[in-house]
Write a structure and sequence with these properties.
The protein is of the alpha+beta class. Helix 2 crosses helix 7. It contains nine helices and four strands. It has a single domain, classed as NADH Oxidase, CATH 3.40.109.10. The termini are far apart. A four-stranded antiparallel β-sheet has the order 1-2-4-3, with helices on both faces. It is globular and about 55 Å long.
Length: 216
């Protein structure tokens, strides 16, 4: 394998070449700057009322990832990949909507009067939903940002694998994750040591229903 990464710039290539890779080059390093760029791009994902209720716990240090290994059911990619990102959903994320809207005002993309009204409506509406619904919203938003993490990484030549097979309770306990944050998934990022296994997809006509007809 070459000592450089093959980058892609067009969406069609990125989305077709992204596969879940489970074998990584343990000697390949990814810089903190690259990880930050990936997460910045990922955070452009849409979210409910632009609350951006995702949070990232980045495991960059290899010794720390060794502590994560048993929590992730001893999946070897946790230590062989260059980094692991734990995507977390903040069910209280809506409480920062005022801060978000203030930034929009400062950038000149939202009038102050509208921002204040938007903030008040969001705080009242989301505050009345209850924890279960707030958590559901945060998990959906966490799924959206997770996909963009993987696509952003692939555009830079990195491979990824999303992992739902981990002990969420132990993750919270071991790393002191606050109660308002709910684990969504783990994402390993690194350079593939071998190609991903090919996968098949159902024909689009078998999973698509037009105008509400034929659902089964």
């Amino acid at each position: 394998m070459s000592e450089t990464l093959t980058k892609a710039t067009d969406y069609a290539t990125v989305v077709r070449e992204r596969h879940s890779v489970r074998q990584y080059d343990p000697n390949w390093m990814i810089s903190e700057a690259e990880l930050k760029e990936i997460l910045e791009e990922a955070s452009l994902a849409p979210s409910s009322s632009n609350t951006q209720s995702w949070r990232f716990l980045v495991f960059h240090d290899k010794e720390l990832r060794k502590k994560l290994l048993p929590i992730a059911n001893n999946q070897q990619q946790v230590v062989d990949a260059s980094a692991v990102v734990a995507v977390l959903g903040d069910h209280e994320g809506f409480k920062r909507i005022g801060e978000i809207n203030d930034i929009a005002v400062e950038k000149g993309i939202m009038p102050r009067e509208f921002a204040d009204q938007f903030t008040a409506r969001t705080l009242a509406g989301y505050g009345a939903l209850g924890k279960e619904k707030q958590t559901h919203i945060a998990l959906v938003d966490g799924g959206l940002v997770s996909m963009q993490v993987m696509l952003s990484a692939k555009s830079r030549g990195y491979d990824t694998v999303p992992m739902g097979g981990f002990d969420a309770v132990r993750l919270v306990e071991e790393f002191g994750i606050p109660g308002n944050l709910v684990p969504v998934m783990l994402i390993a990022i690194g350079r593939a040591a071998s190609p991903a296994r090919a996968t098949a997809r159902l024909p689009i006509d078998e999973i698509t229903y037009w105008n509400g007809q034929g659902l089964k």
